[in-house]
Amino acid sequence: MKWIRENKYAAMLLSLIRLYAGWKWMTSGLGKLTASKAFDASGFIKGAIAKPVMDSTTNNLIYPNYVSFLKHFALPNIQMFNLIVPLGEFLVGIGLILGCLTTVAAFFGVLMNFMYMFAGSVSSNPLMALLGFIILAAGANAGKFGVDYVTLSRLRELFTQMFHNTPKSNTH
Question: What are the residues facing 54 on neighbouring strands?
Fold first, then answer.
């Protein structure tokens, strides 16, 4: 863990992983945002409700709470999901590509991957979740060669000042 979280060669490897995952997320979201036909998640959600993931021996729902969430929250609020799914995919991709708030972007990417898998969609989701977990495990080192190099130090300084009530030095 020390190597993946602190080593500059690990940071370079992580940058490649981050760029690949970011490109996949960004292009997926951009495709949905710019398609000639507006993105509509209702068919996917209705399919996940109609054919939920079931245990093959007991025939019980594996994720009953997720199916309930889809049925009682996602589907009635489909217009919101039609916006946040493609926008979320696009923003996760941009965050990973730029290395800006990298761990936040990776977290939300992994979260979306699991939502798709809970709905029964395997596709590239396990691979993307694995890459997201690698980025999360690396922490700040994943964004070392990106915008995080500057952003994280400034955020740390800001939070230190906010929570320790130390005024910023005003020397020039």
Answer: 61
**Model confidence over 65-101: pLDDT tens digits?**
999 999 999 999 999 999 999 999 999 999 999 999 9
Q: What are phi and psi of 116, to 5 degrees?
A: -65, -40
Neighbours of 148 (CB within 10 A): 23
**What is the rounded CA–CA span in Å between residue 7 and residue 10?**
5
Q: Which residue has the tokens 């699991």?
A: 114
Residues 49 and 12: their CA atoms lie apart, in Å, by 42
CB atoms within 10 A of CB 165: 6
User: CB within 8 A of 110, min separation 6: which ones?
Assistant: 128, 129, 132, 133, 136
Instruction: Phi first, then psi: give them for residue 77, nearest 5 degrees.
Output: -115, 40
Alpha carbon distance 9, 3 (integer Å): 9
Q: What local confidence, expressed as pLDDT, does residue 90 receive?
A: 98
CB 95 within 8 A of CB 104: yes
Bridge partner list, 61:
54
Are residues 2 and 86 in contact, defined by beta-carbon separation less than 8 angstroms? Answer: no
**What residues contact 31, with CB distance under 8 A and at least 6 apart?**
none
